[in-house]
# Entry
Amino acid sequence: MEQSTLGERRQPAVFITGAGGEVGHGLISTLSGEGRSDIVATDLRDLEQSLREQCASTYLADVCDRDALDRLLAMYQVKEIYHLAAVLSTRAELAPEVAHQVNVTGTVNILQIAAEQGRMYGEPVKVVFPSSIAAYGFGSLAQKTKVGAVTEYEYCKPSTMYGCNKLYCEHLGRYYAHSYRQLAQDSVQGDDKNRGVVDFRCVRYPGLISAETIPTGGTSDFVPEMLHAAARGEAYKCFVREDSRIPFMTMPEAINATLQLAAAPRNELTQIVYNIASFSPSAGEVAEVVKQYFPEAIITFEPDQRRQAIVDSWPEELDCSAAKDDWGFTPTYTLEQAFEEYLVPRITKQYESTP
Ligand code: SER
# Structure
C-alpha cells in the first residue's frame, strides 16, 4: 500500500470507467482472470453481480462529475486507467452535445486526475484510451474504395460527433503526455514536473464483435446484430448495403491487444495512437458466413441512408503495421476462424443457457 503526501494510506488501483459496456465486460473478466485484485470499476448504471464479483470495488459515478471522481479516487493510488466510458456514433448523433460532454469532458476529467495523481506520487499514471475508426472520414465512397488501407494519420476528417470527440481526445492525450502545463511556473526547463506524468496510450478499434454482449448505439453494430439475431432464430434487417465494408475484430482480440499495448515498454512506443483490426469483410460476406452456421437465418438488406453515409465515411481497411512493429500486435483470427473458433461455439452455448 502506498503512502500519500498527506500521510494516509491509499490502495493501489487499476481504474476502469464505463465498466458496464461491452469492452468493460471483456476487460474485467480478463484482468480478473489474470489474478488482478485491484480493479476499481465505475459506470453510470449498476454493474451486474458477475462483474462486481470480479472487482475490488465498484461505484456508480458519472465521468462528467469531477467532484464525484475526486471524492472516489481520494481513497486510491491510481496506477492505470482504462477510460472506456463513451457515447457511440449512432447515439451521439441523436444528442450531440450530451455526447460531447461525456466523450470530451469525461476524458479531460480523467486526464487531469491522471496528471494530478502522477505528480503526487512521482510515478506516471498509464491512461489507456480506446479510440475508433470513427476518427477517420472520407469525402466520398469512391475515395474510400480507392484509398483502401489507411495509416493512423491520414484521412482524419470525421463526419460524426463521436469521431470528432475521439480524434480530439487522442490529441488531448498527446498533450497531457508531452506538453501539459508547459509554461507553468513550476515547469523548469530540463526538470519538468508535469511532463511524463501521464502515460497515454490509445488503440483505434475497428467494429467489435462479441459472442457474449451486444453493442448499443454504434454504427458498426450491423455485424454483431446480424450474428446475434441468427443465433436467436430472429430475422434481421441490415441497415447498410451488402457491399459495405469496414474493419472488424472479435472482442477477445480487442481486449488482448489493449492489454498488450498497456504492457509494452514506454520507450518502445513510437506513436500515441495505434490502429488494430483483424479482417475487413463486406456486410454481404458476413451474412454468407452467418448462414453457413445458421442456415435458417433470414437476413435482408434495407439501408438507412444516414447510417449508411457514416459507414461509407469509415475506411474499409486499417494499416496496423505500427502496432505490429512497436508492440507485436497480431490478429488471432480471419473472419472464418473467428466464427469457427470463437463466435459460433460461444454464442450457441450462450443462447442454449439463456433462451
Ligand atoms: N463501434 C463504434 C460505433 O459504431 C465505432 O468504433 O460507433
User: Anything to note?
Assistant: The two ends are 45 Å apart (CA to CA).
